[in-house]
Specification:
Mean pLDDT: 85
Shape: globular
Number of strands: 16
Strand content: 5-15%
Helix content: 40-55%
Number of helices: 19
Radius of gyration: 26 Å
Low-confidence stretches: 129-134, 386-395
Largest sheet: 5 strands, parallel
Length: about 450
């Protein structure tokens, strides 16, 4: 069956351009000059996509976006906005529009958007139908996680930029991957990058690419991350760590949907779904002048908050079971379990490092366990909710050295230094550049200490 598109615009020239372009894509079209005609066509036809102008003689296109969300939820809606009308486009996306195209209409961008939307249309539920229950790789059964999964499925249908907020280790990248995997771009690449881990002098090349000979060391052409993610999704983790000069360049790439590699005279069109995240408070970062306000509005069209582990402790058993299954597979064991006492001890802890910290705790506990069952005594020292302080990694290192009958100041300091470095590595998922930055050290000095202390 041929896909049918509804075009709504009061300008005959725009309607004709869209009809010709879509006709060349072997798509059927129906046109309406106003909302009244459009509503009549929607009642009497089965459309697969709707393209609507924002300003119409008898109303606003956003009103139609909201109506279609309720009455025809299986139809993706894209809006046509005036050139440079960023606020209007953002309002449309927040109201449920799939995407937008600016006037004058870029035919190439229009074709890309329509192709993506038609992939999505076949997956959206019709009115009074339940959405298909797609498996998400997000572990948990708490109300917070159930709500998060529902939001992910809704956001996957849109092309609006998503900002994921949440504490370090709470699973922001996992959520970003789930949004990509549920959407029409899932057959293309998901490209993730930690903005805080890229040296400042290499950022532009990493994001936009470069041409051979454009600077010292550029021995060949390099494809940037935007081009690598074209057709798919680009996840910018810790976006608040970008320096201001890169924020300007990023904003332009988002607005123009094109990038210019270093040393190139021509811009390269890119088509990415932008997903960003940070553990910082983005509003406070804007107020402090660390994040540009115009970039904030572009990336934070829709915000999705990932709950910390301490707010969903009922998920501890199922999360622990998941991580222990992975450990068992890694060590070629039939199973690894955790007893009730150990789970109760975990439940008394606040998990400042969230799910990532839970995984690290279980890995360490398994290494210390005598059998294949983790008990409370196998767990490392933790800090309980009631404020009782158990020795942390650094204190543990101090006590180990102090217990030595032949006290050595050098060993004492090395123990503290090693514990601090390992803690920084765990908190940055063993990203050495980020860990060095966290400790206020140069990368060269950090690498030297790793070698000296025998940390692999």
């Amino acid at each position: 069956m041929t896909n049918k598109i509804l075009i709504i615009d009061d300008e005959p020239d725009i309607r004709e351009l869209l009809e010709i372009t879509l006709g060349r894509m072997e798509l059927d079209t129906a046109s309406a000059p106003d909302l009244t005609t459009a509503r009549s066509l929607l009642k009497n036809n089965d459309f697969h996509l709707c393209l609507t102008d924002m300003k119409l003689p008898d109303g606003n296109g956003i009103d139609l976006v909201r109506e279609i969300q309720v009455d025809y939820p299986h139809i993706p809606v894209a809006v046509i906005t005036a050139h440079g009308s960023t606020e209007t486009a953002i309002s449309a996306l927040k109201s449920g529009a799939f995407d937008f195209v600016s006037k004058p209409v870029d035919v190439r961008k229009l074709r890309e958007m329509v192709s993506t939307a038609l992939k999505l249309e076949h997956e959206l539920p019709r009115k009074n139908e339940s959405p298909v229950d797609s498996p998400l790789k997000i572990i948990g059964e708490s109300p917070q996680i159930s709500n998060l999964k529902e939001q992910i499925i809704k956001l996957a249908r849109s092309q609006a930029p998503v900002f994921i907020s949440g504490e370090s280790g709470s699973g922001k990248e996992l959520v970003a991957r789930a949004i990509h995997a549920q959407g029409p771009r899932r057959e293309n690449d998901f490209v993730a990058i930690n903005c805080g881990a890229i040296p400042t002098e290499l950022m532009e090349s990493e994001f936009f690419g470069h041409k051979k000979g454009s600077f010292t060391g550029a021995h060949s052409d390099k494809t940037g991350l935007f081009q690598a993610a074209s057709g798919g999704s680009l996840f910018l983790d810790e976006i608040a760590d970008l320096p201001l000069h890169m924020q300007v360049k990023l904003l332009r790439a988002i607005q123009e949907k094109s990038v210019r590699p270093i040393g190139s005279e021509a811009e390269v069109p890119v088509n990415v779904r932008l997903i960003s995240a940070t553990h910082k408070n983005l509003t406070q970062e804007v107020e402090a002048g660390n994040v540009r306000q115009d970039l904030y509005y572009r990336i934070n069209v829709i915000e999705l908050a990932v709950p910390p582990l301490r707010d969903r402790k009922q998920d501890l058993p199922v999360l622990s079971e998941h991580f222990l299954e992975l450990l068992a597979r890694e060590h070629e064991l039939e199973s690894i379990s955790i007893n009730t006492d150990a789970l109760e001890k975990l439940a008394q802890y606040d998990f400042p490092g969230n799910v990532r910290e839970l995984e690290n705790i279980l890995q360490r506990a398994f290494a210390l366990a005598e059998g294949n069952t983790i008990t409370a005594s196998d767990l490392p020292p933790l800090k309980s909710n009631d404020g009782q302080q158990f020795p942390d990694a650094i204190t543990e290192a101090q006590e180990k050295v102090e217990a030595d009958t032949e006290f050595s100041l050098e060993k004492y300091l090395e123990g503290i230094e090693k514990a601090a470095i390992e803690k920084a590595l765990e908190e940055t998922r063993w990203n050495k550049t980020a860990a060095a930055k966290k400790l206020g050290m140069s990368f060269r000095s950090f690498r030297y200490r790793l070698k000296k202390l025998g940390i692999d």
